[in-house]
Each structure stands twice: as C-alpha cells, then as structure tokens.
Design a protein that fits this description.
The chain is α/β, with parallel strands linked by helices. The protein contains ten helices and ten strands. The chain has two domains: 192 residues, 2-enoyl-CoA Hydratase, Chain A, domain 1 (Alpha-Beta Complex), CATH 3.90.226.10; 49 residues. The protein is globular and about 60 Å long. The relative contact order is 0.11.
C-alpha cells in the first residue's frame, strides 16, 4: 500500500512505514500528510504489535523541505508536521525509528517521537535549526524529556550534529547496529514483542502515555483507571491470569 513516496507494508503483527524520497528524504506537506495517513491505517490494524518508520536512500531524513519554509508557505508545513507527530506520539502501538545516514531537524524529531531508536554506527543525529535562524519546536518539547535539560540545551542552542554512538550515550538511541543491519535489528525487536498480546501492548503504551503527563499522583490515578477500566476488561488479560493459574501457555486473541 503506497501513497506517493510513502508506503505501508503489513506482515502479520509487523507494520513498516517507509519514506522514499531519496537521497535525503526531506519531508514536505504532501509527504507529511501521507505519513499520517499510513499511521492512521496502522492504528486500525488491531493485530499489529510494532510499527517501524524507515526510509530509502542515503539518509533517514534531513528535515523539512526547505522550499516550503518561506513566509507564506511555512504555516501548512509546520501544521502538517505537528499533526503527524501528535498522532505518532499517541499511536497505541510500540514504534521504532530505523536510522541510516543523517537524521537532522525534523528527521531527528520524528525519531524522538518513537519508543525505540535503532541507528547504524555511521549515522549522525542533530538539530541544526539554530544555524538557520529558527529552532526545532518538537525537540523543544520532547528532547529534555529524553536526555535532560543540560544535554537538550546543548543540542538545541549549539546546533551541532553528533554520531550515533554519542546519541546512544546521551539516551537518544536505544541500540547501535552495523551498517546494513537495520532490518535484522527490527526483526529482533519484533520477535521480542511477538509473544505478547497486541491489545495488552496497546494498553501498556497508553499507560506510558498517561504516566508521562501531569504530576505523579494524577498520572498514577489515570493509569489506574486505564488498568482497571480498560485492561482488566480485555479477553487477553483474563486469559493471561487464567493460563498462569492453570500452568499452561496463554492463547492470545489480541482483544
């Protein structure tokens, strides 16, 4: 399934959304809208347990299309980007960014919005917007939550790119892989998640989203409500407990 240069591949419980606008895979309004549409399609596939964001070409994504960032054209571009990021953040499926080459600006911000980031050892990550007289709005919200205020300030204010190894040290990258091994890394995380219930994974993701907002006590109350009101009403939650008590393996229905 494809829309322009953004495609979706479904293989059982694995979904892969791929951007194909090589070599740099810069995102324009059309591509951003297509990307959100593919993510919405994934959200309707109840069997999916993990979705990967990947790209063809030399780079993962070097940012937003520069030609659309002029006054008079930038508004729809930024709104489309932020709409897609909001949907990606709220998507109740574990997400993985697969980075090769450069992930700069909006490309790095897309990775920030994912649960897992796998990067080739030769990849670079950065937020160079300050060099162009602007700043990265998504990173302004998400980066401090991932790496802490001091490191976020250094990355946003100085605009320097860093190696994937440095990204791992700072907490931006979950795992480093050898060049050409991103597919194998994706298969590894897919196999780690495959034994679990798709519905429970979605609710676990919802719990993390609820837990990351507001003060601790309010967040805990919100997660409690989701646990008792949503999770414990699913067939798979009942099946998991019954299987344990009966000394057998669970049979998930993904609902």
């Amino acid at each position: 399934m494809s829309q322009g240069s953004v495609s979706l591949t479904l293989d059982g419980s694995l979904a892969v959304v791929t951007i194909a606008r090589p070599p740099e895979n810069a995102l324009d309004t059309e591509r951003l809208e297509a990307l959100e549409e593919k993510l919405r399609e994934v959200s309707r596939q109840r069997q999916v347990k993990v979705v990967a964001l990947s790209s063809h070409g030399r780079d993962f994504c070097t940012g937003l299309e520069m030609g659309e960032q002029r006054p008079g054209r930038v508004d729809p571009l930024i709104r489309a980007f932020h709409s897609m990021v909001r949907f990606l953040l709220a998507l109740e499926v574990p997400t993985v960014a697969l980075i090769q080459g450069r992930a700069l600006g909006a490309g790095a911000e897309v990775a920030l919005a994912c649960d897992f980031v796998f990067a080739e050892t030769t990849a670079t990550i950065g937020f160079p917007e300050i060099r162009l007289g602007v700043f990265p709005p998504v990173a302004s919200v998400l980066l401090e939550r991932r790496v802490g205020r001091a490191k976020a300030a250094d990355l946003i204010f100085c605009g320097a790119a860093m190696t994937a190894e440095a990204g791992e040290r700072k907490g931006l990258v979950n795992a480093l892989v050898n060049p050409g091994d991103l597919v194998n890394a994706l298969e590894t995380i897919h196999q780690r998640l495959e034994p679990f219930s798709a519905s429970t994974l979605r609710l676990a993701k919802r719990g993390m989203l609820l837990g990351g907002t507001g003060d601790v006590l309010s967040a805990l109350l919100a997660v409690e409500r989701s646990y008792l009101g949503d999770l414990m009403k699913t067939e798979d939650a009942r099946e998991g407990v019954s299987a344990y008590l009966e000394g057998r393996g669970p049979v998930w229905r993904n609902r």
